[in-house]
Amino acid sequence: MKKLINDPSRVVEESVEGFGLAHAELVTVHRDPWYVVRADAPVQGKVGLVSGGGSGHEPLHAGFVGRGMLTAAVPGAMFTSPTPDAIAPATLAANGGRGVLHIVKNYTGDVLNFETAAELAEADDVQVRAVIVNDDVAVEDSLYTAGRRGVAGTVAVEKIAGAAAERGDDLDGVTAIAERVIANVRSMGVALRAGIVPHAGVPGFDLTEEEIEIGIGIHGEPGRRRVPMAPADAITEQLTNPVLDDLGISGGEQVLLFVNGMGGTPASELYVVYRRARQLLEERGATVARSLVGNYVTSLEMQGASVTVLRLDDELTQLWDAPVHTAALRW
Amino acid sequence: MKKLINDPSRVVEESVEGFGLAHAELVTVHRDPWYVVRADAPVQGKVGLVSGGGSGHEPLHAGFVGRGMLTAAVPGAMFTSPTPDAIAPATLAANGGRGVLHIVKNYTGDVLNFETAAELAEADDVQVRAVIVNDDVAVEDSLYTAGRRGVAGTVAVEKIAGAAAERGDDLDGVTAIAERVIANVRSMGVALRAGIVPHAGVPGFDLTEEEIEIGIGIHGEPGRRRVPMAPADAITEQLTNPVLDDLGISGGEQVLLFVNGMGGTPASELYVVYRRARQLLEERGATVARSLVGNYVTSLEMQGASVTVLRLDDELTQLWDAPVHTAALRW
């Protein structure tokens, strides 16, 4: 294993420390327990948004802390849920007096730990709600999940719910907006080559030079099937059509098309995937009204990509367009 | 070789086409010859900025086309200089009546082709100047270069010169600002694993599981030396100290610290490198006033990173901070 790290047991802390130094105008890093919080938190009179999950998916979640998106992010160990004793204080730090929404990707450990943390925070008189992101159409249930997994659609949930909190919606309102995004967003991914978890030191799974995994999870969990390597357009069809079918996208609809890199795939290839996914949407008569292309929900240096489609309405579009100032998303 | 492409001979065009579709509010893609130009170009009364180079370094350069940065970018084939018959029309398209600055990375083919294109554009009565970026301290001369190579420091040149053009500086002024950035920026990189050029189909060079290349070029050209794999802090010292020595950074100075990913290295590792590079600067008494961390000048899916330091003064800091709206850099 060759990685730009010092010690597998310290990579998360050193990385978060570097992140805090690089973005000190945006965030404050809290140690022991480790979490990342807006430098100006708590923002009085605004609903707080807290997310988190295993590390290794950067820039998710710390890269989305800032004005118009998350109030705090809690990084777990690599591919490991953050613990309630970190989530709870992050929740208190994010509370500006109007309650806190937990945005949780649907993995069993994450769901349980956020639930426990919510109870701890409520014992401190902070009102907490939670939404569970489960956008991955590839599989029902999986290695770490009952139901569908939460993957790249999380970015849309965090952005749009963050904009709703920023405009002053109350906790019910922000929760309802987050639920509406979740109801209208779907994703599916492919892996060409696995990433390497530092403390494991070997690839998370093996693929030969002739095969790829369609429907991969962001921890390398198995997807729908292994198939022979194919041209990008054919692979993109295998990702995009199940997403569009599941969403029931039809003519005349407006969507956000998000092509996400898994960490080790060049940007040039992501745009090749975007090109074909967009053609497929247009062939169905849908309009791609907004786009996002890049590495936002990664799996270390995994080679691969995912396609996410969000059905837009006027309000979701406005909230997507609202100003955001985070390390990884800014406009 | 497993890549998300359809045909090695069409990957650049399909990728640029996807890029143009995803960012249609920012750029227009011109075909045959292929170049990317601001959607609102030419901007009357402003100096135009044109850069370009071999593809495979995305988001460089097309990702930096937009308000406050480049007016046009000319992508060559993978790792291959763009041709004068593409650079010249891009130059004409970028001309708003006050001349055009070519920002050229120091590779023999790029320099020659931009020179020829400048002659063609001048025959059409467009005044053209050129600056040559040569920030890589690793080696004098190399496989494709007389003198030092142009690498990640190019981002700072394009951002700051772009801001000077945006505020209305004339061609002499924008050129002088670009030269001042070039005089004050230095870089050095490391590779852990090579990228794969699509039409080659095999890694550009071989490194064993126990060795890394210090001073690597962005096309995989040899650097200073191959050394055994080491902890990130030790590698970061081998990149940062030569940069700081060459720049002659001393106590009391303000710098921009830019840790650039080569394409296949996780963001978490880039922040581990950033953390140590920042410590080294602070140990010399310098202040890191601005930071940039991410994949900006890549080498396909190469694993590795580079450290760039720019000595700042008040004007360069203001120009760095000035608004920018491109696909890859926005604030």
Automatic annotation (TrEMBL), chains A, B:
Biological processes annotated in GO: glycerol catabolic process
Domain DhaK: 7-331
TM region(s), chain numbering: none
Annotated GO CC locations: cytosol
Molecular function in Gene Ontology: glycerone kinase activity
Keyword field: Kinase, Transferase
Domain of life: Bacteria
Protein name: Dihydroxyacetone kinase subunit DhaK
Species assigned in the record: Cellulomonas aerilata
Lineage: Bacteria, Bacillati, Actinomycetota, Actinomycetes, Micrococcales
